[in-house]
Sequence to fold (136 residues):
Amino acid sequence: MRNILISLLLTVCLPAQADWIVNPNNVSVTRVNVGDYLMAALDNHKAVVSILTVSTRDSCTDGSVVHTVNGVNVKMLRTFRQNKYCFYTPLTETGREYVTNEFMTKLSVNWGNYTIDAVGFTDSVNKLRQLSKGAI
Fold:
């Protein structure tokens, strides 16, 4: 599923500002920096948030790393995809819930070196949930 989401994410045009959008493939996306994105997708009706950074294979080895999200250390699964992006996704259910909750309840989220605008995140996740309600 992750590979499909990556492919779908990379085919959509994103606005220059940090607005949360739901792309035609039902992935919520915002631009974090030039070439770097944050995305949310549903997994069993729960939002899962990942950050994608432009990278090279040499600087992005697959495995477990720790990122600081709003002052809390969160274990991340790091994977290199599309020969261009390093994906970081919370590795544990507790981490996924924490990161999602931070985006749902805060105006912005500090994730490593990024300060990410969270305004609009909840609306975009709710839109994902509405779109998935009638899916077969």
